[in-house]
């Protein structure tokens, strides 16, 4: 049976960059069946909701989902359930993608780009594995109310179950085995019970299933400091939802432009992963052909590697992007003047 890839272009620059990624996929894996559907504001305009049941079912029946971006000023004032961002959250929940992979990789060709120099760390190559479906983002009880004495308060609950930690830690171990074999697990075990539990569970799992993996632990505040001080010490960083969010944005800034950063969100084996650029819908440049397609193209690279089991095609895409950059291809965010289409063609030329 043919493998299926579902494109969810979404809003803003989403359609421009997913079209670029689809063009690349057609070249490196021509036998994959590519479908397309609506999400976010585009879906609200058509169906009144940011994600229909049909589209979620279609996503679940695919082998991988490539999403562009959702949101924009047009829908910003809508009530919570009618916001484009809810489409993305419902999709993540519906696919149960609990492991969010954010590589922070610096392309050698960009090290000398003078417009980026202040941010870029030469030779940087690390992967952050963030738990995506639990922790303080979802824990109950949560709320804003008043206590017995009438004092107003806001609160959230940080809670992790053993299976939730185990499944994401397993992903981190597996990824490390294909890299330098080192996992640094991050929490605040000095002040949080859920952090201490996290550390103990990861340690136990490592004893049982950590063959070929060197495990270390770091407190989240120290990790933030070390990421800025000496980022190249890390191989794989494993973190919960909240710390992973903060640390992956920190690491992102060491690589250059937001237009270069892909992400993958994976569920249990055999279910489709969700792949998307880290950047948003960028309404300020939408529809002008100015968007850098690399983040979407590299998200496609991750789809080929992690959900479609085509490492050779993924390697080809990675090399083509690196070579195109080396040959001087640059969109505006990288200090050049290529359009989205011209940048895509420059990458295709290298395939
Ligand atoms: P969101 O809330 O969806 O994350 P945002 O407004 O925080 O959206 P982006 O939409 O990513 O963030 O845009 C941030 C800035 O980066 C904007 O100035 C945008 O033009 C720029 N930008 C984002 N993606 C790209 C891209 N692929 N190529 C070039 N510039 C980009
Ligand atoms: Mg943002």
UniProtKB/TrEMBL annotation:
It comes from the Bacteria. Mg(2+) binds at residues 221, 245, 249. It is an enzyme of class 1 (oxidoreductase). Pfam families: Iso_dh. Transmembrane segments: none annotated. Binds 1 Mg(2+) or Mn(2+) ion per subunit. The record marks 137, 188 as: Important for catalysis. It is found in: Cytoplasm. Residues 4-347 form the Isopropylmalate dehydrogenase-like domain. Its cofactor is Mg(2+); Mn(2+). Catalyzes the oxidation of 3-carboxy-2-hydroxy-4-methylpentanoate (3-isopropylmalate) to 3-carboxy-4-methyl-2-oxopentanoate. The product decarboxylates to 4-methyl-2 oxopentanoate. NCBIfam families: leuB. Homodimer. This is 3-isopropylmalate dehydrogenase.
């Amino acid at each position: 049976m043919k493998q299926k890839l579902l494109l969810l272009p979404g809003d803003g620059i989403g359609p421009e960059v997913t079209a670029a990624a689809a063009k690349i996929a057609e070249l490196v894996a021509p036998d994959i069946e590519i479908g397309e559907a609506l999400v976010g504001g585009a879906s609200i305009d058509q169906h009144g909701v940011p994600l229909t049941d049909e589209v979620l079912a279609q996503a679940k029946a695919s082998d991988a989902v490539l999403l562009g971006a959702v949101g924009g000023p047009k829908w910003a004032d809508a009530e919570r359930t009618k916001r484009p961002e809810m489409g993305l959250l419902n999709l993540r929940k519906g696919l149960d993608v609990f492991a969010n992979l954010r590589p922070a990789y610096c392309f050698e060709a960009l090290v000398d780009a003078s417009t980026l120099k202040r941010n870029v760390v030469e030779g940087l190559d690390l992967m952050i594995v963030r738990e995506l479906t639990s922790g303080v983002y979802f824990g109950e009880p949560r709320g804003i109310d008043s206590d017995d004495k009438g004092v107003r308060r806001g609160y959230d609950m940080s809670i992790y179950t053993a299976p939730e930690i185990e499944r994401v830690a397993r992903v981190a171990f597996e990824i490390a085995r294909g890299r330098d074999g080192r996992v640094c697990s991050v929490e605040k075990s000095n002040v949080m019970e859920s952090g201490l539990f996290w550390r103990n569970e990861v340690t136990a799992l490592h004893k049982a299933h950590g063959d070929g993996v060197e495990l270390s632990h770091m407190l989240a505040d120290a990790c933030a400091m070390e990421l800025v001080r000496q980022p190249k010490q890390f191989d794989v960083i494993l973190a919960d939802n909240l710390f992973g969010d903060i640390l992956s944005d920190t690491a992102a800034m060491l690589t250059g432009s937001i237009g270069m950063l892909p992400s993958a969100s994976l569920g249990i084996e055999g279910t489709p992963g969700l792949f998307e650029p880290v950047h948003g819908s960028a309404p300020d440049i939408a529809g002008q052909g100015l968007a850098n397609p690399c983040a979407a193209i590299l998200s496609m690279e991750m789809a080929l590697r992690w959900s479609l089991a085509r490492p050779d095609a993924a390697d080809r895409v990675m090399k083509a992007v690196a070579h195109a950059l080396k040959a001087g291809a640059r969109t505006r965010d990288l200090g050049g003047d290529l359009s989205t289409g011209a940048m895509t063609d420059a990458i295709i030329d290298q395939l």
